[in-house]
Amino acid sequence: xxxxxxxxxxxxxxxxxxxxxxxxxxxxxxxxxIRVSLVDDxxxxxxxVAFGKQEPQRFAVQDEDKRLAFGVVARADFPVFRTDPVLGxxxxxxxxxxxxxxxxxxxxxxxxxxxxxxxxxxxxxGVHLVQWFIKDSAKGIAPxxxxxxxxxxxxxxxxxxxxxxxxxxxxxxxKGFSMEVFYTLTPESDTAAVAExxxxxxxxxxxxxxxxxxxxxxxxx
Length: 221
What we know:
The chain contains four helices and 13 strands. It is α+β, with helices and mostly antiparallel strands.
């Protein structure tokens, strides 16, 4: 993570309940997505849908023998809570244009099948990218069941050949995708846009803050 200090260029920094908000850029040749991880608690707060034997067919008719995990990889304009020694507590927002740039770079760097489990850094075999697209409602590219996900968000579908991993997807051990990404941050100055995003999420941030407070209290015991 790199931070561009542009605070002197803006009149104010957007916050959510007093926590500063930063916008993600790819501002360095090293920036970009390096891997997709199957995780139990996706930061985008959107679980994936599994297709296969005895699985509900929510989007399209699938062959029963296919093992497909489908969901959101990068959620556009959605503040994701982070904390680190440099910035402390903060939110990061991935704009749609940054997500498109990341998605294109990821494929051109031949990383399509770079997948690990719970960000352990160990690429697994038997999990292969089938499709990779950006939501665009105006063009009819808008998967059913993800109405709350903004246009510009990145979706993926993976074929899971590995028996153990597929069982863990079905039983809920892994609930969604998460990115491993290098990025540059710049302070978000559009306070009105951030306020509108928070309002559109209908109380979600109150639930996030409550959950984070609960985890912090447990860790202190």
